[in-house]
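Field log, afternoon session.

UNIT: design team B
ACTIVITY: writing a sequence onto a fixed backbone
BACKBONE:
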């Protein structure tokens, strides 16, 4: 005997609240470099600001401002990894200044942006120095002839 597939009537549909919070999260991600007000987000979810903050924290796991900071830090990390200078990455990610960025970066990542860049740089150098190359099917490394 095989297991039966659930029918449409027994499948759980996403709630309107979940859909509204998904819209808000997408809005934050698309507009993270802009100034976003709590009232603006609450209006998108059709909730009062106080109720919105409570529901958002419960469903997403972070308060709205903290979620915005996480999105901004992730954007800044991508910029830093692509070679954008620290102050410019902070500004382009939506932080007021480099100090504001560094404080949030450290609280989220556990290290300062400078130490993060040093660690990323160190890892990249180690992989170059150790000659981490591709491996053939038989386990031998392929290296460029030089």
């Amino acid at each position: 005997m095989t297991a039966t597939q659930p029918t449409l009537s027994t499948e759980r549909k996403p709630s309107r609240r979940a859909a509204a919070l998904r819209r808000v999260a997408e809005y934050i991600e698309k507009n993270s470099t802009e100034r976003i007000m709590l009232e603006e987000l609450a209006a998108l979810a059709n909730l009062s600001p106080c109720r919105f903050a409570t529901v958002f924290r419960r469903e997403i796991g972070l308060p709205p401002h903290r979620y915005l900071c996480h999105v901004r830090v992730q954007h800044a990390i991508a910029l830093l990894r692509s070679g954008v200078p620290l102050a410019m990455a902070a500004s382009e990610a939506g932080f007021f200044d480099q100090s504001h960025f560094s404080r949030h970066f450290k609280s989220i990542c556990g290290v300062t942006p400078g130490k993060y860049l040093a660690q990323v740089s160190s890892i990249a150098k180690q992989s170059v120095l150790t000659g981490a190359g591709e491996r053939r099917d038989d386990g031998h490394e392929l290296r460029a002839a030089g």
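LOG NOTE: Residues 16-128 form a domain with the Arc Repressor Mutant, subunit A fold (CATH 1.10.10.60).
NEXT ACTIVITY: expression trials, pending approval
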